[in-house]
Design a protein that fits this description.
Rossmann fold, 11 helices, 48% helix, AB_hydrolase_fold, Epoxide hydrolase N-terminal domain-containing protein, Epoxide_hydrolase
Length: 295
C-alpha cells in the first residue's frame, strides 16, 4: 500500500478566475417562441443557471465540502501504458467483517468497505492520451487498485459504462470478483442457435403484438429514445474530438450539454441551480481545468 496516499481537491484560483471570465462574456442564441424540451435544453434555463453560476455559486465552499470526503490516489501500472494516477474515495466500515465493494460510476447488513474510483479519463484521475485504453485496461487498473488496498476478494456495484468494466473484471479475475450488482442491464433478443425455443416465442410475441401494457410502454419509450434521445451518444462515440473541443472551451456549452440529460434522466426531479452547479457543472469543468494544469 506504499503507493496509496491522501488526495485533496485543490483547484487553482487561476482556473476559477478563467471560468468566471468566460461566464461573464457568454452569448446566447435566440429562442423560438413557446419552445419546449422537444428542441433540447431551453435557452432561458441555461441563461438563468449561467447567471447563478457566475454570480452566486461558490466553488470554494463546494471544494471545502468535497474535501470532507475520504479522497485518495494511487499510482497504477497497466500493461502497455505508462503509470498513471487513479483517484478514488475509500470509506471503510466499522465492521471487521465488512465486504470490500468496488463502486464503479454505508449500509447496515451487510457492511461494506466502499472503494469508489474516478475512472481514468474522468474526474481527478489521470488522462490517458495513448490510444487503445479499453475495457481490459480499465479492468486491470481497478483490479490492481483493489489489490493495492489489500482486498484480494471483493464485490462490485456498477452502472452505465461501469457494467461493461465490472463484467470484464469478472471474466478476467473470477477468483477475486465474488459478487456483482448492476443497476443497468442491456437486453438483446434471444438467439436462434443458442435459445431456439425462446427465439420462436419472441417472434410470436413480437409479430402478434402479445406484449403486456407495461411491456408495450417500455418498447415505445425505447424506440422514442433511439430516435430522439441518443444523438449525444452517437457524436461522442464517432466524433469525440469535435464535440470535445466545443465543450472544453465553453462552460455554457458544457452546461447545456449536461443539464439536458440531468432533466431528461431524473424522472422529473426539480433541480435547483445550486444542485446543477455542484453535481455536475462546476465539478466536471473545474476538474478538467485542474488536471490540465496538473498533468
Amino acid at each position: 500500500m506504499s503507493n496509496i496516499r491522501r488526495y485533496q481537491v485543490a483547484v487553482p484560483t487561476t482556473a476559477v478566475e478563467k471560468l468566471h471570465e468566460k461566464l461573464a462574456v457568454s452569448t446566447f442564441p435566440d429562442e423560438v417562441d413557446g419552445a419546449g424540451w422537444e428542441r433540447g435544453v431551453r435557452v432561458a434555463d441555461v441563461k438563468r443557471i449561467t447567471k447563478y453560476w457566475h454570480q452566486e455559486f461558490s466553488w470554494a465552499s463546494f471544494e471545502e465540502r468535497l474535501n470532507k470526503l475520504p479522497h485518495f490516489e494511487a499510482t497504477i501500472s497497466v500493461e502497455g501504458f505508462d503509470p498513471f494516477q487513479l483517484h478514488f474515495l475509500h470509506q471503510k466500515s466499522a465492521s471487521p467483517d465488512a465486504i470490500p465493494l468496488l463502486f464503479v460510476h454505508g449500509s447496515n447488513k451487510p457492511s461494506f468497505n466502499v472503494v469508489a474510483p474516478s475512472l481514468p479519463n474522468f474526474g481527478f484521475s489521470s488522462r490517458i492520451t495513448k490510444t487503445g485504453f479499453g475495457l481490459r485496461q480499465y479492468s486491470e487498473a481497478l483490479h490492481k487498485l483493489m489489490l493495492s488496498l489489500g482486498y484480494e476478494q471483493y464485490a462490485s456495484q456498477s452502472g452505465d459504462i461501469g457494467i461493461s468494466i465490472t463484467n470484464s473484471i469478472g471474466a478476467l479475475y473470477p477468483h477475486s470478483l465474488r459478487a456483482l450488482h448492476l443497476n443497468m442491464v442491456v437486453g438483446v433478443p434471444p438467439s436462434l442457435t443458442k435459445s431456439p425455443i425462446a427465439f420462436v416465442r419472441f417472434l410470436v410475441t413480437h409479430f402478434l403484438n402479445l406484449y403486456t401494457p407495461p411491456e408495450s410502454a417500455g418498447l415505445k419509450a425505447a424506440q422514442q429514445y433511439r430516435t430522439s434521445g441518443n444523438a449525444y451518444f452517437d457524436i461522442q462515440k464517432t466524433r469525440p474530438n469535435t464535440i470535445g473541443l466545443l465543450l472544453a472551451d465553453s462552460p455554457v456549452g458544457l452546461l447545456a450539454w449536461i443539464y439536458e440529460k440531468l432533466v431528461a434522466w431524473s424522472d422529473k426531479y426539480q433541480w435547483t441551480d445550486q444542485e446543477v452547479c455542484e453535481w455536475e457543472i462546476g465539478k466536471q469543468y473545474l476538474d478538467a481545468l485542474c488536471l490540465q494544469l496538473r498533468w
